[in-house]
Amino acid sequence: MLSGFGRAFTIPDLRNKLLFTLGIIIIYRLGVFIPAPGISYGNVQQCLSNITATSGVYGMINLFSGGALLQLSIFALGVMPYITASIIVQLLRVVIPRFQQLHEEGAQGQTKLTQYTRYLTIALAVLNATTIVTLAQNGTLLQGCTLPIIPDDGILNILLIITTLTAGTGVVMWLGEQITEKGVGNGMSLLIFTSIAASFPTAFGSILQTQGWGIFAAVMGIGLLVIVAVVFVEQSQRRIPVQYAKRMVGRRTIGGTSTYIPLKVNMAGVIPLIFASSMLMLPGLIAQFNTPSDGRQPPEWVNWINTYLITGDHPLYMIMYFLMILGFAYFYVSITFNTEEVAGNMKKYGGFIPGVRAGRPTQEYLTYVLNRITLPGATYLAVLALIPLIALVLFDANQNFPLGGASLLIVIGVGLDTIKQIDAQLQQRNYEGLLR
């Protein structure tokens, strides 16, 4: 594989794409460390040195932003507003017929949907930035810190910070699109990959410093086994054979070919984890806004939420997280893979599954198979998501433990996809790729 990467840099076109992608990633990482105007950088760094975990309602956003959120940098929101907007637009296809029509129109319709996603991203960025500034003002963003994060809480300064964070989201969105158009791989996915991978050295160093070499070696060994298991499951698929009957179009005979429909075991990807985490974040966010800032005792329901639904080390939290991932996996797969549409397209072009009649029986068969393979895929996702929570109990790690959950799934998935794209471009030019 190393020789394959060497060949990639000998091809001018591919070398330029790789260097362009690397340059965008460097710019993105530099923006993580540039503080937003109006933020006391010294106080933020002092507060960060006194807290040991990025827990709380914005722990996942901080992870996806590469630590930029808790540093309140210009890229503090990272790619989360864009991810959320993309998911919302995708789900709205079920509710709004116009969105479904645009999806079926091909490239022109996809361009329109992308434009809607951009507008929604900016709107969500304004909302998220306002929430973050509010949390920074009342001291709940960096819990346990008494230093003023925003020394000047005037309206103009607050508006300046919100505008800067929103503009940073727009820049991150533009950087991701530039990678997709002119670089290698999916831009947004690579930026998330970079943010998560940047947290690995700190996480591993924390385990080594607090637990010693024995626990560190055990964690690394378990990590290798988890990585192998994730790669195996992510590459697993159920192939449903499809045959197309021969037919005459003018003087030409088309069809008569055999192919298959690849159904991945994990068709939902990391989306169920994001859905479940977001839903479990809401009670904590509501509790934070209802916690008195003058030292008075909070309401009983706030104490209950802080006890059971915040830290992630309580069995009730783990059970709810597990069940919500299962439910969201089935929900998301049923929306993204429309068995009725697939069966209709097969019937339209003369395709059929051997032993299954076209039309309604084909749809029922696809639904049956999809439900069967979604169960192990959803269970695999739920178990993977619980690894950081179990590490939180066993190793006193934080909730962003790198060897599990959304972080490991995204890193492996994006890595495999990027390597496949580089391999495909090498094969187009050299007939020999990275993978053998």
TrEMBL record:
PROSITE patterns under this entry? Answer: SECY_1 (PS00755), SECY_2 (PS00756)
Keyword annotations for this protein? Answer: Cell membrane, Membrane, Protein transport, Translocation, Transmembrane, Transmembrane helix, Transport
| Cellular location(s) | Cell membrane; Membrane
Specify the domain of life of the species encoding this protein.
Bacteria
Q: Which residues form the signal peptide?
A: none
Q: Does the keyword Heme apply?
A: no
Membrane topology listed for this record? Multi-pass membrane protein
Record-annotated membrane-spanning stretches: 18-36, 68-95, 116-135, 155-176, 188-207, 213-233, 254-275, 316-337, 373-395
Query: Which Gene3D superfamilies does this entry report, sorted A to Z?
Result: SecY subunit domain
Q: Which Pfam families match?
A: SecY (PF00344)
Q: How does it assemble?
A: Component of the Sec protein translocase complex. Heterotrimer consisting of SecY, SecE and SecG subunits. The heterotrimers can form oligomers, although 1 heterotrimer is thought to be able to translocate proteins. Interacts with the ribosome. Interacts with SecDF, and other proteins may be involved. Interacts with SecA.
Q: Which HAMAP family match?
A: SecY
Give the family this protein belongs to, as stated in its UniProt record: Belongs to the SecY/SEC61-alpha family.
What function does the entry list?
Answer: The central subunit of the protein translocation channel SecYEG. Consists of two halves formed by TMs 1-5 and 6-10. These two domains form a lateral gate at the front which open onto the bilayer between TMs 2 and 7, and are clamped together by SecE at the back. The channel is closed by both a pore ring composed of hydrophobic SecY resides and a short helix (helix 2A) on the extracellular side of the membrane which forms a plug. The plug probably moves laterally to allow the channel to open. The ring and the pore may move independently.
According to UniProt, the name of this protein is Protein translocase subunit SecY
Ranked from the top, the taxonomy reads:
Bacteria, Bacillati, Actinomycetota, Actinomycetes, Micrococcales
